[in-house]
Amino acid sequence: MSADVILKDVNKVYPNGFHAVYDFNIEIQKGEFIVLAGPSGCGKSTTLRMVAGLEEISSGELIINGKKVNNVAPKDRDIAMVFQNYALYAHMTVYHNMAFSLTIRKVDPVEIHARVMKAAEILGLVPYLNRKPKQLSGGQRQRVAVGRAIVRDPVVFLLDEPLSNLDAKLRGSMRKELMQLHERLNATFIYVTHDQIEALTLATRIVVMKDGYVQQIATPKEMFDNPENLFVAGFIGTPPMNFFQGSIDENGEYFVHESTGMKFKLTAHQQEIIGNYIGKRVTMATRAEYIYIDDAHLADNKESTFEMNIDYVEYLGAYNLLYGNFGDEQIISKVYSREVIEAKNTKLCLDMNNVHFFDIETTKRIR
Ligand code: ATP
User: Fold this and answer.
1) Which of 10, 22, 44, 48 to mutate to test the pocket of ligand 1 (most atoms within 8 A of CB)?
2) pLDDT (tens digit, 9 = 90+) per residue, 169-214?
3) Rounded to the nearest whole angstrom, what is the distance from the C-alpha of residue 161 to the centroid of ligand 1?
């Protein structure tokens, strides 16, 4: 496999002096679906726009298909972009919206027709080719926008929050369509979203950004299971990870929860890696899925069992989310709804094998 898109130490400083992206490094392989994710203002659109050639790269190198393209015009970069607002031409039919970019490039009309028809078939747009954009639903307009990119047959598809204008249900079905389309085209996708569910469901690898800095680049599973720092732990996954503030006891055997004094026994592996933190404060974190209330888990995890007042239960069908406070922290546990919650004050336990520790100062996962 060859790298399709390489960003080497890419930085963006806007003319007003604002440093929006710091030292972005990634090698994207052909056929990957890369999702740039992060909260508003983290620099994800700026990064995508630098790849598209819509923003100048302040320093660093951008290589597409083996060629350095920092100074190559957008139209010559082998990329096609799908925007959030679709940017369709209102006065043109669906057919002409899709054909337009090829017409201005003076592609042979027979070839244009073939490419438009092929894209229309892939996207289920054949019945709508003579309609104008305002005669289409939001999802159909979105497909036309994608169709305009497909006809260009680019090396890389760039998509900037393409689903954000759709309602939740349509977003779900368009997500599925995009995944199928990606498989069919076998092209490289770079996709921007602030929605971590989109990131988890679509990406082959996710790039999480914050304040212009890349926080972690990993597969969805790796990012979910092993977040690199506290920010990623809080950003990826619904509900977000549970955090407990505390410290490691002087023998390096227990995590002592600060606001309750409760002790949690560390696993043998944790005792090995936590050596530098003996007597120091750390953050313990675990996913709601690994906080249990059933008898079998309680029996197996006696040294990490605690009591919590359940304030609120959110029913999600097969699962319930239990909300409560443990000392100073709000805790959310995700349990099968068949588990009966007998009392408001209930015993819960952590599976310490699925607990992470984070350095309070660097915010990095201790490993
Ligand atoms: P959103 O999800 O809100 O679009 P984003 O992560 O895509 O956010 P960017 O649009 O990349 O964020 O912007 C990153 C930062 O750069 C923001 O703080 C933004 O205010 C700033 N910025 C964007 N464009 C300019 C500009 N032309 N001049 C100066 N600063 C800018």
Assistant:
1) 44
2) 778 888 888 898 899 888 999 999 988 989 999 999 999 999 999 9
3) 14
Asked whether 30 and 188 are in contact (CB, 8 A), the reply is yes
Supply the Cα-derived Rg of the chain in whole angstroms. 25
**Which atom of ligand 1 is nearest the CA belonging to 15?**
28
Whole-number Å distance, alpha carbon 193 to ligand 1 midpoint, is: 13
What distance in Å separates the CA atoms of residue 148 and residue 157, rounded to the nearest whole number?
11
Q: Is 46 in the pocket of ligand 1 (CB under 6 A)?
A: yes
Count the helix, strand and coil residues of the chain and give each as a percent rounded to the nearest 5: 30, 35, 35
Q: Does residue 56 line the site of ligand 1, with CB under 6 A?
A: no
pTM, 2 dp:
0.90
Instruction: Residue 337: name the closest of 316, 311, 308 by CA.
Output: 316
The residue with tokens 């029996």 is: 299
Distance 43 CA to ligand 1 centre (A): 6
Residue nearest to atom 16 of ligand 1 (CA): 20
Print burial letters for 324-361: b (CB count within 10 Å at least 16), e (below 16).
bebbebebbbbbeeebeeeeeebebbbbbeebbbbbee
The candidate with the shortest Cα–Cα distance to 283, out of 358, 361, 232, is 358
